[in-house]
Design a protein that fits this description.
The protein is of the alpha/beta class. The protein has a single domain, classed as NAD(P)-binding Rossmann-like Domain (Rossmann fold). Strand 1, helix 2 and strand 2 form a beta-alpha-beta unit. Helix content is about 45%, strand content about 20%. It contains seven helices and eight strands; from the N terminus they run H-E-H-E-H-E-H-E-H-E-H-H-E-E-E. It has a six-stranded parallel sheet with strand order 3-2-1-4-5-6, sandwiched between helices. Pfam families: adh_short.
Length: about 210
C-alpha cells in the first residue's frame, strides 16, 4: 500500500528506534516505498528482525550502533554515517517512557527521558541539517511526537514535557529550514499496543 501512495526509490532513510514497535513499522514502511534504510540501534541490541524484513523486500539496510543518552556518540554518529552513505531522510523514533507520579520522578529519570526523547532528536536534526546545508542538498525530517504533545497525561510528566519539546522543535526547524529545501514534520501516534490476533469460533471472537 505504501508504494501506491508515494515512491522513495533511490532515497536512503536514517531511522532511530527501528528495532521494534512504531519505529520498526516505519522503517519497513519506508522500505516498502522503495527507500534503502540506515538503522540506528543501541549497541546492546542484537536484533536483526527489522534488517531481515527490509532486505526481504529487496532493499539495502545498514546498521549503526549508538546510545541516545551518549551525547559524544551522537555527535560522532552522523559524520560516520554520511562518510559511507548518502542520507535523504531522517526519521527520529527512539524514545523511552517511564510512568510514575510527578512528585516521585527522580531527576536522573527526568534527565534520561529528556536526553533520549528530545535532546537526541535535536542533536540528530542539527547534524543532518548541517550535512544537507553544507552540501546544498534537500532533505526531509520526520520526528515522533505524541498525543501527550498536546494533552499532557497522568503520571508521565517528563515524557509529556519531552514530547511537547519535540513539537516545538519541529515547528522551529520547519520555519527556519523550509526556504532552504528541508522539510521538517512530526507524527503524533496514539497509544500503541502489541498486535492481537483474533479468531472466530462458533460465532465468538477469541484472542
Amino acid at each position: 500500500m505504501a508504494s501506491e501512495l508515494f515512491n522513495l526509490a533511490g532515497k536512503t532513510a536514517m531511522v532511530t528506534g527501528g528495532t521494534r514497535g512504531i519505529g520498526q513499522a516505519m522503517a519497513i514502511g519506508l522500505a516498502e516505498a522503495g527507500a534503502d534504510i540506515i538503522l540506528i540501534q543501541r549497541a546492546s541490541s542484537s536484533s536483526t528482525a527489522t534488517k531481515d524484513a527490509i532486505e526481504a523486500l529487496g532493499r539495502r539496510c545498514h546498521t549503526f550502533h549508538c546510545d541516545m543518552t551518549d551525547r559524544a556518540a551522537l555527535a560522532a554518529l552522523v559524520p560516520a554515517v554520511t562518510a559511507a552513505h548518502r542520507v535523504d531522510i531522517l526519521v527520529n523514533v527512539a524514545g523511552i517512557l517511564k510512568r510514575m507520579p510527578a512528585v516521585d520522578c527522580p531527576l536522573d529519570t527526568y534527565d534520561d527521558i529528556m536526553q533520549t526523547n528530545l535532546t537526541a532528536t535535536f542533536q540528530l536534526c542539527q547534524a543532518v541539517g548541517r550535512y544537507w546545508l553544507a552540501n546544498g542538498m534537500r532533505g526531509k525530517i520526520v520526528n515522533t511526537a505524541s498525543l501527550t504533545t498536546f494533552i499532557g497525561s497522568v503520571n508521565l510528566v517528563a515524557y509529556a514535557m519531552s514530547k511537547g519539546g519535540v513539537g516545538q522543535l519541529t515547528k522551529a526547524l520547519s520555519n527556519e529550514w523550509a526556504a532552504k529545501g528541508i522539510n521538517v514534520n512530526a507524527v503524533a501516534p496514539g497509544w500503541a499496543f502489541p498486535p492481537v490476533s483474533f479468531y472466530f469460533c462458533n460465532g465468538r471472537v477469541l484472542c
